[in-house]
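Deviation from plan, reported transparently: zinc ion complex.
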Amino acid sequence: MLGSGGARGLRLPAVNGIEGPPSDEGVPDWIAGLGLPGLVDLHTHFLPERVLRKVWDYFDLAGTHYGIEWPIRYRFDEPTRLGVLESLGVRAFAPLVYPHKPGMAEWLNRWALEFGRTTVGAVPTATMYPEPEAADYVAAALDAGARCFKVHVQVGGFDPRDPLLERPWQLLAASGVPVVVHCGHGPLRGEFTGLDVFAEVLERHPGLVTVLAHAGMPEYGRALELARDHPGVYLDTTMVGVAFSERFAPLPSDWAARLLPVADRVVLGSDFPNIPYPYAEQLAAVAGWAGSDERLGIPFLRAVLHDTPARLLGCG
Ligand SMILES: [Zn+2]
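Because the crystal trials were delayed, the predicted structure below was used instead.
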């Protein structure tokens, strides 16, 4: 056990006796200590192997793209990656896919729906892109049992207010299926990123169950405002508060206190496997928030790591 608490490389102190897991190996015991049956991770990525290789090639050039090195920690073949999740005690996860160009979402959906149906722990997911076919394939994915959608505004380079997405947003709002939306400026700004742009989608579709990926990084305050104003808006923890992200998108110092009004709408996300640090660091970051405000504490931790994402994914 590390005296300072948290995973290797973390600066988080142990507060109120709440400490993160010391390493990935320590995660299962740590989860059991919280009385949880496992973790539910609402934000992971699985892709057809050759597409994933291309994504990893992109991260290899992160120094050029992001101005920061991004060595992928869990760069293994698919069975090994699934084994890592299992060994971490992740009992359910959303394997998210997203297109970067037209004509791609529909076949990604076919792959992701099948992967979710046939992979232990995974739920069927889908995605969309502004294109004439979007309404039809979103409806088809919902009929086929998609339990989570991903919309990536920066990678896709599209406007989430595009009229071609109007019907798809309506369908998603009516379905109650959560949509993980990467619409923040971090780590890269896009032509249509920014929470104010996405706020207009929320105004038009107030029933939408939205999970703001990366808690809106770096617009954390705006993400909290959107959650306050829209009861269907959640925040995911993906890469939030870990040492890696604190270097370019630091959390406000009063983050834990500001989570209080939305404490039941924060869900575990990790970006596994595409992260440049151990999975345990994400858990330690969340534990740090739980420990730094006694009004959050263990109940918050249990909600974030399991209960709330399990409810959203329908795998209670
Ligand atoms: Zn992601």
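Strands lie at 39-45, 90-96, 125-127, 148-152, 179-182, 210-212, 233-236, 266-267. We consider this an acceptable substitute for the interim report.
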